[in-house]
Amino acid sequence: MASAAGVLPTAMPVPCPARPAVSPVAWLVAPALLLFVVFFVMPFGVMALLSVLSGNPVQVPEVELTWRHYARFLGDDLYSDALWATLRIGAVTTAAALLTGYPLAHWMARLKSRLGHALLLMAVIAPMLTGIVVRTFAWMTILQDKGAINTTLIGLGLIDKPLPLMYNEFGTVVALVHIYVPFMVLTLTGVIGRIDERLEQAARSLGASRLRAFWEVTLPLSMPGIFAGSLLVFALSISAYVTPFLMGGTNVLTLPMLIYQQVSSSFNLGFAGALGVILLTVSLVVVVAYNHVLARLSGQEGLT
Amino acid sequence: MNAPGFDPGRAAYYALNGAIIVFLLTPIAIIAVFALNPTPYISFPPVGVTLRWFVKFLATEDFMVALWLSLRIAVVVLLLSMLIGGACALALARGQLPGARLLTAFFMSPLMLPAILTGLALFQVFQLPSVDRPVWGLMLGHTLVAVPYVLRTTLAVLANFDTRLEEAAASLGAAPLRVFYEVTLPLIRPGVIAGGIFAFIVSFDQFPISLFLVPPKGETLPVVLFNYMKFDLDGAIAAASMVSILLALSVVLLLERIIGLKAYVKL
After folding, report:
1. Domain segments of chain A as ranges
2. The complex's ipTM?
3. Which residues neighbour A222 within 8 Å (Cβ) at sequence distance 6 or greater?
4. Are residues B116 and B187 part of one domain?
5. Residue A184 contacts residue A230 (beta carbons within 8 Å)
6. Chain A contacts of B83, Cβ < 8 Å?
7. Regions of chain A with pLDDT less than 50
8. How far apart are CA A24 and CA A36, in angstroms?
9. Nearest partner of A219 among A125, A116, A105, judged by Cα
């Protein structure tokens, strides 16, 4: 009985499986595995390989191994500045998304009304399903010199000349927060929803103020969600291209922008590869940390 | 214990959340305003209502060619990711694969690794022999980032799935194929379809991979919009944005009807 529990009879013409314990259903993983190996693992291998070669090995037969692309990155402040700008924008975006997302997630997790919950969820998911290009455009119309905020403030006579809301890191971060805060909210809601409300009530009945009960009970218990959501938003915002490009103008240069520049105007595949490996390394550290947090969070549940 | 009447703490809580919701939804409202505002450049406040930007969007051949291409790619991605992702989810949940957890994390990783790097890496593969980038490359690139969505929704359904239903069917004499078609498939269908709809949206809005993989004369809608926005910010972009948003909203409603939005809270 127990041994049969997980075995799903299958339609596949199944070759004899290598291990008797593995169900024939396991073969259904094959198409996904093929796609991921050919279109994901292999290309990243090519990227890493090109980053240490002096040229395109298919077109130029006499290529050699070289560290010069990495040396170029280390040798010019422009590139390390771009890396710092990327990490700084990622960190500020993450912090702002946490401050924006937490109250909303808390409300959503504690809301009793089903309709209210559905409406809130809709408000969070609707922007998520609107493309990045479209949402960046919206922020351009709001933050530019002739945009909604500046014209309104000038119209009210509060300021004389437009505030510099765009073409800088500020505008970039505002738009990035808007784009990635739904991920924060959805991650946090799940975690906060699982915290037993009675713990907070117990603290309050023992005389703690609402703020103190939140600070000493709910907040510490939602830490795993805070970590997971923050890592997710950080990983997403350091890889953003459209938003820094359009919102930052010439004043912001991030690693993804540099990468596309190398491909589109400098045609330097090797250096683009090296920049890619550097960004990938940062991301992998974040992803591993995220999976670690998530695994602890979900205990025996699968990683989803 | 709660003092009756006005509670400043509660009031601040709701005011803060109200402000956050305004922050979330204002950009969408602003786009609607600009899509209907007749002035040739983005300007505020609006001076009237017109449909000329929708007409311009629909009458511009570049936009329409791109829209049509984006829709075709999104449909292919929808079908491919439902097949590949659905099968993969079954294997991961039921195949008793060694290292299924690690494999799941691997299949979910395109969501967390920078899509722009996936685009760069695929670009470099096609650049090695310097061949023209084919449209199927774009489709498979999109499928790669869409599969995790199908995987997530289908795994969520499979996690709440009573395996005894299949055992019961089998013990009553149903052949494995029949058990699959009459028990397993109907039960996982909502998850697969919901994931597929997500896949459609993901592909339709996909930018970073498209940026690297589009052939010069075959750009998808987001890439065309992006290139247009570099030089010009007029109402046509707002109108194009509204079309995308309406599409997304109708998809959200569709999702809600098919499986209920709650399933997506679990990230």
Report:
1. 38-68, 79-298
2. 0.85
3. A102, A188, A191, A192, A195
4. yes
5. yes
6. 31
7. 1-14, 16-20, 300-304
8. 21
9. A105
Q: Are the beta carbons of B95 and A26 separated by less than 8 Å? A: yes
Q: Which chain B residues have a beta carbon less than 8 Å from that of A32?
A: 84-85, 87-88, 91, 107, 147
Q: CB of A4 within 8 A of CB of B167?
A: yes
| Per-residue pLDDT, A19 | 47
- Which stretches of A111-253 are DSSP H helices? 114-128, 132-143, 148-155, 169-193, 197-205, 210-213, 219-221, 223-237, 242-248
CA distances (Å), B144 to each of B87, B119, B141, B248, B249, in order? 14, 11, 5, 21, 24
Q: Which residues of chain B have pLDDT under 50?
A: 1-3, 264-267
A5 to chain B: closest CA residue:
B163
Contact B27, A247 (CB under 8 A): no
pTM of this structure: 0.85
pLDDT, mean over chain A: 85
Give the domain extent around B229: 57-264
Exposure of A239 by Cβ count < 10 A (0-12 exposed, 13-18 middle, 19+ buried)? buried
Shared-domain flag, residues B64 and B150: yes
Superfamily of the domain at A79-298: MetI-like (1.10.3720.10)
Residue A286 touches partner B, C-beta closer than 8 Å? yes
- 8-state DSSP, A219: H
Is there a single domain that holds both residue B123 and residue B84? yes
Phi, psi of A5 (to 5 degrees): -55, -45
Please judge whether B112 and A290 are an interchain contact, meaning their C-beta atoms are less than 8 angstroms apart: yes
Q: Tell me if chain A has a CB within 8 Å of the CB of B228.
A: no
- Partner residue opposite B90 with nearest CB, options A28, A123, A246: A28
The beta-carbon neighbor of B155 closest among A46, A135, A304 is: A304
B85: left (phi over 0), alpha (psi -120 to 50) or beta: alpha
User: Which CATH number do you get for residue B198?
Assistant: 1.10.3720.10
- B86-107 burial, b for 16+ CB within 10 Å, e for fewer? bbbbbbbbbbbbeebbebbbbb
Contact criterion met (CB < 8 Å) for A304 and B104: yes
Q: Are residues B82 and B17 in the same domain?
A: no
Residue B72 contacts A where some CB pair is shorter than 8 Å: no
C-alpha span between A191 and B266 (Å, rounded): 9
- What is the Cα–Cα distance from A96 to A177, expressed in whole angstroms? 7
